[in-house]
C-alpha cells in the first residue's frame, strides 16, 4: 500500500527529459527496436525455379514460399516435370534459432524502453530519488547492448545461410530435378534492413550507457552522491 501511495505521489508528467540525451536516445531505441523485430518477424518471401521443357510445353515455374522463423525444411513445394509427373521437395536448413533470438531481444528491448520512458516522463523524481534507479538502468542497458551485439551477429550469419539456401541456383543444382534452372530470386531487402537495424540498436544502447552512467553516484561528486543517498534532490 505504501509503495502504491509513493508511486501516486511521485507521478508528475514532464516532457523535459525528451530534450536531454537520456530521454531522446531512449525514444530512438524504442523506435529502432520496433523496426528490428518487425522487419524480421513479419517477413515472408518466395523463391522460384523453372522446369525446362521442350516446346510447346514451355518452362513451368516452381515456387517455394518461406518466412519467419526460417525453418526452411517445413516448407514443401511441388515440382511438376515435363511428363506431368510430380514430386514433393523441401527447402533445406533450419535457421530459426538465430532469427527467434534476434526477435526476442528486439521485443524485450521495446518493452524495456516503454517502461523506462514512462519512468523518465512520469516518475522522474522517483527515478532520481536514490542512486538505485540509475544503477539498475545502467546495468540493464549494458546487458541489452551486449545482447544486441550477440543477436545481430548471429542473425547476420543466419541471414547469409538463408540467402544461400533460398538461392534458385543452389536449389536447382541440389534438387532431384535435373531439368531445372534458376528462376526468380527472393527479395531480401527487408531482411538486410533488419540486420542494419540490429547494429544501429547496438550503437544506440552502447552510447546511451554513458548518459545513464552520468546519472549514477559513480559519476557524481561525493557531496552530490551523499545527498541523493539521503533521499534529497541532487545539487546543481
From TrEMBL:
Residues 17-217 form the MARVEL domain. It is a multi-pass membrane protein. PANTHER family: SYNAPTOPHYSIN, SYNAPTOPHYSIN-LIKE 2A. Keywords: Glycoprotein, Membrane, Transmembrane, Transmembrane helix. This is Synaptophysin-like 2a. The keyword Membrane applies. Belongs to the synaptophysin/synaptobrevin family. The chain crosses the membrane at residues 99-123, 135-155, 193-213.
